[in-house]
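[step 3/7] fold_predict: job queued, chain A
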Amino acid sequence: QLHRAVPGVPALRGSAERIPLPDASADVVLVAQAWHWVDPARAVPEVARVLKPGGRLGLVWNTRDERLGWVKDLGRIIGHEDHALEHKVCLPEPFATVERAQFEWTSYLTPQALIDLVASRSYCITSPAEVRTRTLDRVRDLLKTHPALANTTGLALPYVTVGIRATLS
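[step 4/7] structure written:
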């Protein structure tokens, strides 16, 4: 996909546990929306291997801000966000100076874009067809019946982005 979108940019197949780069060759390793899927016992030493001394590991999660009524209702349909993920992250030696930051922002979507967003998520894609259909139908029903969403052509979906930055010792 990267080659098609940006011809000439190198793309390498790898994982956090097996990064296809030489030792001490990267200033930064960034993992977005995926650290909870890696094996930290293997990924931490592998990331440390490819980072230059003083290099940084960045971890990012975007989570829906479910404090608003309709977003909380959406969470009841598709599953609530795990806001504790970033607090479960422990980055041992050789990482030091672990910093955490949180940012609130809003994505503006059409009702169809919200349905498409839900349909694109792994929990929906991997569900059996009847579960996926029922979930998307419930999202459509929410869009039609919730007072904040009914008859709207656009909606504001609030997010909280959590970032963790760790510096290699």
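[step 5/7] annotate
The chain is about 35% helix and 30% strand.
Strands lie at 26-32, 51-64, 95-109, 155-168.
exit 0
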